[in-house]
Amino acid sequence: MGARIIGTGSAVPSTCLTNDDLAGRVDTNHKWIVTRTGIQERRVIRKDEALLDLIHAASETALKAAGLSAQDLDVILIATVSGEYAFPSTACLLQTRLGVDNIPAFDVAAACAGFVYGMSVAHSYLKSGEYNRILLVGADALSSMVNWGDRTTCVLFGDGAGAVVLENQSNDRGLLSTVVESSGALWQLLHVRSGLRQTFDQAGEQEPDWGIQMRGPELFKVAVRALSDVTKKALEKAGLAPEDIKLMVPHQANLRIIQAVADRLGASMDKVHCNVDRFGNTSAASIPIALDEAVRAGKVHADDIVVLNGCGGGLTWGASVARW
Ligand code: ACO
Known about the structure:
By secondary structure, the protein is of the alpha/beta class.
């Protein structure tokens, strides 16, 4: 029995912030941002927009691609750290939007690695046989947690949502392995206090430790090592090796991190789907948004070995391997 991804969908806000837009706000420039990160522009929500609308749109698209309706689902999972409410979970809010009841709906919090953590939960649920169809969404709006006066972080993040529908099927295709790991000892490399919300177009006084706090260069090194190691572990668990990878869809934090991980795995960049240039780091949304693009662009074929991997605040990291 295989737990297969049978539908994907994604949605991003309409407001686009270019590097030049940011250079008008803080002491930065297009050349620095592109050279150090690969990012050209990112999408951000405005104060009258809700992440839940993007989550809903991405979910409906994924369900449609799967040929299913929300009533067919057994579980709703959302990987996010930026839900509008501390409780209820964003998954419960989506559940009522979708008009389904009496199935489990809950959020998974692992920052930028959230989608892979969600895959781990979904994979275990499906493998157990207790559930057969799961909607897994990765969604974040970290732009609402960014200090828009801090050039070292405000250029990195964007908002969005991506969704997949997973189903148990009686063949040998589907998820082969998922490995997730955390290191709480490294929490200070990337963190944000809870209870804060301010969109990019809201003015206001800010506390000195307002918004995302990040030790970028240290994080960069841990991310490259952790992502390449965990991907090798997940491949090994699936009885595969890096040379078996047909497509890697990594968390889109920084083009240089992605290139360094691909290099350590011996994978050429034509096997890697990147969209960090257009969306920046959308946290838990980045893998499912990129996967949806790759699927719709016809880059994924039956029986291809597809690797999803990500690293984020916690620190958390993980990798999932699937035979498509
Ligand atoms: N524009 C212009 N200059 C800047 C900017 C900016 N936006 N930001 C920093 N600088 C300056 C710094 O002040 C520093 O100046 P100095 O040499 O005079 O002190 C110089 O540029 C170099 O700064 P570094 O931080 O050393 O630059 P680095 O090459 O490490 O790039 C970056 C910074 C892009 C943040 C990188 O460290 C990185 O990507 N780290 C990983 C961060 C990340 O991905 N976080 C997201 C979540 S975790 C994850 O997903 C892995």
